[in-house]
Specification:
It holds the Pfam family TetR_C_6. The chain contains seven helices and no strands. By secondary structure, it is an all-alpha fold. The protein has a single domain, classed as Tetracycline Repressor, domain 2 (Orthogonal Bundle).
Amino acid sequence: MGSLRHYFATQADLMAFTLRAVIAGVDKRISALPDSPDPLSRAVLVLAELLPLDEERLTEHRIWLAFTARAMVDPDLAALCDESRTALRNGCRSLLEPLTTGNLDRETDRLHALVDGLAIHAALHPESYPPHYLHEILHTHMSTLPKV
């Protein structure tokens, strides 16, 4: 504990560092994804990186849940929480732009809520949300988009 205090003045500083490391890991995985000429295939690949489909991503989501709970009562963390929420929403929007003729704001909110909800449920109850089921829900949702 003492060695951590040498690097982090507060628990909030440690939590912010940890969340930034998680975000960097997710960004790195997404950047390493193969290119796909099909925007739907690309969107599904990217979105899958945002779901707890393996132990690494499950740990990331549990960190996110702890961080989010703390950010609700810690103003120093609230800004980073808002920043990451905005980044996820913007990412959902950019994935949807080439895929739908529907109301882009509504479809963005719908996808963002789906990804957040699936991630929370799967992080809290992984036995009820196995990877194949999460993939199935994601594919079903993406197939319901008003098409370009």
